[in-house]
């Protein structure tokens, strides 16, 4: 119906006849003329209706915002004085010689000139998505998937589909369940990831797999969580962890280069241990220069139990964050940070203002200075490289509390003091522990139970599982986990050993993962992979605050869709056919 | 880990050192040497272990089929006498200088040398998919999606995702339901297609959308149906039906050209009416030369009620299929076909063997010849262009019965008589009726209720809905519907009129499709689209018999997965959390 997109008109088309289709973005009546800004997905262009074109002018007078129209006319250069440099098409305008109203529009329930509520935006999502910022974000998302696919296609990866209707895991509290009609009383589950299927594809010999695929998790939603989200899922055979990292790093670098003209450079790599020690996080934001500095050795003999207790405890940690120029902090501000770290379990927060380094301990200001001596003070200043005007904020508690609290405090201070550099800071985090210890001493996998340990036999793993490192790797960008992966266990004995360490009985393993254990018997190849969160990657790339802003039809924070009113009540007959019934609210233990 | 794929070795690599990873396809011990066929996704290559390489030979003696190994060695040209022309790598072999067993294999539960049961194939799918024929089919599928995506990307289509957790439609008997945890007692449904969402994306101004997307239908399964299947889903704005057809035809032509080196040429187009008249099907297989020939006008005055009844009834039909050379059919064979058409409601099947055209009615052989006269006989022969030795098979009943029965008979005869040409026969079927009349006289949409009528106002549609044609189009290939689409209704009044004709009340329309009706108010653009069945397209292209053979992990005909044992019993706690319970079998009306 059209010859060009609105956003494509430029000086090279002057004097040409073109036809456009789009929406009336704005109409202005000025000096007897009608000016229209016409919008389509590629942008805006100004069009002019002359009153001499009587019939067209009559139609144009009916136009309101968001009418869908088709116009034809001649492209004209605008006079120098009317050039609009803020508009990509601002050097030209269309002199309208034909106008057809394709559809009228009622006044919009959303006001594009103001912030609308999340509820309203989602209810009228098809209008919210007309806003150029949203339209461009979704278009950008499509460009990202396209670039990712091209890279993977060019590198021999096969785009393969795995099932959405799959096995409900007995413990899968976060699984969405789907009742089966043919097998009454039984359920499918929607996959939290295609992990096991992609491993089976490697056993089947497909060598390199990828899929941009929906995954599902029924959990409390946060800003960056949705019931359904999208993964770039990758698995390879006969490649080790380093090769997978190199390949996927190249992919991400290419995508940033191609779509943002940003060179991410070679990604640095850091062990999990170092990340936790220096940044209190397994996904450190390296744009933030603040670090955690361990000082237990300096403080273990002071007469202040808050310090000396944890400093002498193998499970304790004493660390400090130095905030340059932070000595200007008010008492109220310090109290605020103390309350903040309290949320992470810290029972308090010691602090020292460094007023005058040259004065030694006399130059320090703090309620706790009295517990220190000149030597300790000197060591603290030396270790933290504190300067006049800095403040030292202490965490002293169990290792976990200090690491979590100071890790979070570091991010907050970075924001509050404007220390976060405006750049891209990618990072690999490697050498994760295989297991985390739960409070009851049981071990749980830090990633998932199919992750291979680094260079170890089953016997070696069994001997000291708590210390074992895995062959896993996370890609972090600006403090967000973009993706994570690992070398997988391809050896049946090793997989059985891991299940044993996790306290999974043979029966349970057989029940839950029998098919994987079976598959490992038949010449399963070494394999490794990685999965990226596409939504989060796009969110970071376009600078959105929430993954909701890069999804066409997201759910609300209560996992509902205001647009279609989903979820809804089901037809009772359908439930009978499925062999299930809704528990009346009175019998519902959760609501009773 | 490797330098080449097994299937890549050729004469250009002679004398080079290479490293391969793969599976032992076969081991033969011959003349003191060990020969291995090593397999990876790209093919097979022969490797030789010399007993002089003592250590390697010792390892090689342990190898069994399907062991996963890594080998290095030198590529050698085979002596002329040993060249294997059936093998892509048959001119060379690898002289092994290094051998590592990456994983051993237990004896396989599937015998690759024989046909295995569907159950066994699906249970050990990761082994079934190692079979070169299956491996190649799935690889081919990946090539198809890749080619489709490239075409659509290059034509300005945006790859956009629509929700999987969506609204349960009140009448959606074929919806898979998903109980919501946050909204207890309520359900999401898995989409049967993204139809409404893609229309909303057009309203949002994305202009050209596509998605290769899973769709779900909970229904009895046939050879070419699966609970989850994949659509190439396309929608465009400001394009009419012809433009969508041209664009998608070009896409399919490109894919066939690129992947099969087949030129499908320009697709012919046929109206629905003609397709039903000549072929008794809305998806005629044009490789089959047989046609239905209408003869009611010839037979309406004969003294044979079986003919004259339907011939004089506006809702009746009398038609004939001429089978060249079919006069040789035995009585038993004719009885077989009579029984066959019976399945489609035909109460019998009249037939005439044409033994001698020159002899007129005397040359015809049939129990019903006595009801005909010379003139009728001559007209039948002229109309059907029958030759000596042909047979005429009659259908005479209601229009629907004759069309269905002879449409099916035509296909069966084509197969039985070897008449189906070995070629690709694409076709567009167009000008569908808007509605079908149900037995109770109610109208139901032939496609879906968002399909636009051809060139009609709401008032014109209302005046004679049963005769209205829609702006819909199906792409047919070799008698299979590859895809179907239509221009959609973008006008609110027209959509309301269609709902009215379908007997959908305002309340019901509001409840089910309120969001679509809302969206049409706000400058909804003209839009049109199409959806292809990817599974079926790939199945046709690779010559498989079932879509199961082109899906990595399909379900059985009872919608179960023998590999993972899905569906399964859910954790009772999870059901309580979801606010649902399984109806005990005794209370279950279906099973009681």
Protein architecture, described:
Two copies of one chain form a homodimer. With 592 residues, chain A is α+β, with helices and mostly antiparallel strands. In chain A, helix 10 (331-342) packs across helix 12 (399-416) and helix 14 (492-501) packs antiparallel against helix 15 (506-520). Chain A is globular. Chain A has an eight-stranded mixed β-sheet, with helices on both faces. Residues 588-592 of chain A have low confidence and may be disordered. Chains A and B meet through strand 1, helix 3, helix 4, strand 6 and strand 7 of A and strand 1, helix 3, helix 4, strand 6 and strand 7 of B.
CA gyration radius of chain A, whole angstroms: 30 Å
Q: Which regions of chain A are unreliable across 5 or more consecutive residues at pLDDT < 50?
A: 588-592
**What proportion of the residues of chain A form beta strands (DSSP E)?**
15-25%
Write the CATH homologous superfamily of one domain in chain A. Answer: GAD-like domain
**How does the major sheet of chain A shape up?**
8 strands, mixed
CATH-derived topology of one domain in chain A = Gyrase A, domain 2
Please report the two chains with the greatest interface, counting residues with C-beta closer than 8 angstroms to the partner's C-beta.
A-B, 130 and 130 residues
Query: Tell me, what is the CATH class of one domain in chain A?
Result: Alpha Beta
The percentage helix of chain A is 25-40%
Distance between the ends of chain A: 60 Å
What value does the average pLDDT of chain A take?
94
> In the CATH classification, which architecture of one domain in chain A applies?
2-Layer Sandwich
Q: How many separate helices of chain A?
A: 17
- What coarse outline of chain A follows from CA principal-axis ratios? globular
Family (chains A, B): Belongs to the class-II aminoacyl-tRNA synthetase family. Type 1 subfamily.
Subunit structure (chains A, B): Homodimer.
EC number (chains A, B): 6.1.1.12
Keywords (chains A, B): Aminoacyl-tRNA synthetase, ATP-binding, Cytoplasm, Ligase, Nucleotide-binding, Protein biosynthesis
